[in-house]
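User: Good morning. I'm curious how pyridoxal-5'-phosphate would be positioned relative to this chain. Could you predict the structure with it bound?
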Amino acid sequence: MSNVMPVDSAEMGETLRERVREVRARIAAAAERAGRAADDVALVAVSKTVSAEIVRVAYEAGLHVFGENRVQEAQRKITVLQLAGVRWELIGHLQTNKAAQAAELFARVQSVDSLRLAEALSARAGQLGRNMPVLLEVNVAREPSKSGFDPGALIEAARAIAALPNLRPEGLMTVAPLVEHAEAVRPVFRRLHGLRDELRRAVPSGTAGGWAQLSMGMTDDFEVAIEEGATIVRIGRALFGERPKV
Ligand SMILES: *Cc1c(COP(=O)(O)O)cnc(C)c1O
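Assistant: Good morning! Here's the predicted structure, ligand included:
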């Protein structure tokens, strides 16, 4: 795919505005197919590997929630950009020794994948006087390469996490397996939705509408995810173009 960002910043702005429009239209169409409202689905623009300069242009193009997968990289951008009214969310695996920093930087951590990490986040959030919103990541397809709770261990972990004093568990997140056709991961999204419903019954959470959020769907599969109930989609490449191969 040759959808790299133009270097000229006016052109970059035009490209981004167009892509934001396209992505929002696709979100709205998928929501409508599922009989849902378009504003039931929040868009997180995944800006990992994207330069601070491009993030600024994206902000001006109307994107105000950014997802990052590394604490250091996010911290650099947050510090350099100082954008008013922006939310930064962590979507990548977080080491427990960086939990304190994450609690300071992010509006929400979507990738809580162990009780130990949750405890560390809660401890720091308490010192900061905040009640930190989090999602629990679930490795629905049980892929060895992925982090996230095993579906069989989720309820027990959720119960312990919901009891922590300074976290506000808002729902679940998953990264579906890489497949050729998005349709193939529909059962994964459906399963996460089912787990969420189970969780709601088993573990009442203090949050209004407890466990309401389902963060699922990326560039290649977000429409299927929305049809299966996603309330948050995390989209990188459809907005910013292909990432450099590492
Ligand atoms: C990179 C990433 C995304 C975005 O992926 P795209 O395919 O670029 O849309 C979403 N979620 C997580 C957890 C990611 O690491």
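The mean pLDDT is 95. Residues 9-33 form the longest helix (25 residues).
Let me know if you'd like a different ligand tried.
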